[in-house]
Amino acid sequence: MSPVQNAKSLVQDHYAALAKATPDTVAAVLGARMAPDGIWRGVHPFNTQTGPAAAADVFWAPFLRSFSSFQRREDIFFAARNSIHDKTSVWTCSMGHLMGLFDAPFLGIPATQKIAMLRYAEFNRVEEGRIVETAFFCDILHLMAQAGVRPFAHQTAAHLVQPGPRTHDGVLLQAHNPAEGAKTLHLINRMIGSIDAANAAPKSLTPREEMQENWHDDMLWWGPEGIGATYTIDRYIEQHQQPFRKGMANRAFNGHLCRIAEGQYGAFFGWPNLTLTNNNGFMGLPPCDTRVDMRVVDVYRREGDKLAENWIFIDMLYFLKMQGVDVLADLGG
């Protein structure tokens, strides 16, 4: 098999083993395929860890203690060589929900004794038969909302348990035509460039004109809790783009650690992607002159020559904590 297909097989085996893990065995399960000095990045409060034992200690063991009958509900899975930096490393991207019965408190979030779904996106870099780097993003604010805890009353878009692709074809276990992945990557790169151009000269195009170059009119934007999900270009502009551009200023793009595409799917993440200032208030927060970071994942589905769907994960707890809002401390977590 090719290195890309080998990476897919390894990570899928990894996920199958995690599905059978317990709080007591999960460190060993992670260690079976993760390098001893592998880097594991997680959203706040998990942050950057080294090695499988540390990753188990900060996230997996507490998660498995809180969620019984755990299932991974994977909606998207693909792999490719990284298109930036070395252009040779192989990464996988997985996205969906970690589902279980929320039977014990997690990070101070009260248990519901009901089904709960933790939105996640995970990237794994595979090298010589080992996972040597992981980026694990999850939407903790989204989980809090399912438990009836809503720290933000000013969410501009919708709270939803978010589905996978409309086309139900997002799990790419087999190899795909490299030309299709190249089309997707080219479109993502073009879209990133159009955003940069609009930020540099905001009067050159209207927001709608800017969006229509790269997006279908009925695009779906599955945003993180605190912002929410929105549908169609016009509602996206109204319910996210406009509040974001009005509230946030002095945006600096820091680049991505990984940007990959296979078939009609593509994704990237940064650590952090953006540094900016909440000059005019955002998400109901008051203005703040502190420079803050956004660690972001974007996952895309291309349809034809434009983007059709976009799933977004932002390390919201980190973004908020840098502005003096410690959501978990308020919960006692």
Structure report:
The chain has 333 residues and is an alpha+beta fold. The protein has 2 domains: 3-146, Nuclear Transport Factor 2, Chain: A, CATH 3.10.450.50; 178-331, Nuclear Transport Factor 2, Chain: A, CATH 3.10.450. The chain has 9 helices and 15 strands. Strands 2-1-6-5-4-3 form a 6-stranded mixed β-sheet. It has a 6-stranded mixed β-sheet with strand order 8-7-15-14-11-10. The protein has a 3-stranded antiparallel β-sheet with strand order 9-12-13. β10 and β11 (265-269) form a beta hairpin. The longest helix is centred in the middle third of the chain and has 23 residues, at 178-200.
Measured between the Cα atoms of the first and last residue, the distance is 45 Å
Fraction of residues in H or I helices: 25-40%
Overall morphology: globular
Q: Segments where pLDDT lies below 50 for 5+ residues?
A: none
The level-1 CATH class of the largest domain: Alpha Beta
Mean pLDDT: 94
Placed side by side, the strands forming the largest sheet appear as 2-1-6-5-4-3
Q: Hey, roughly how much beta strand do the residues contain?
A: 25-35%
CATH architecture of the largest domain: Roll
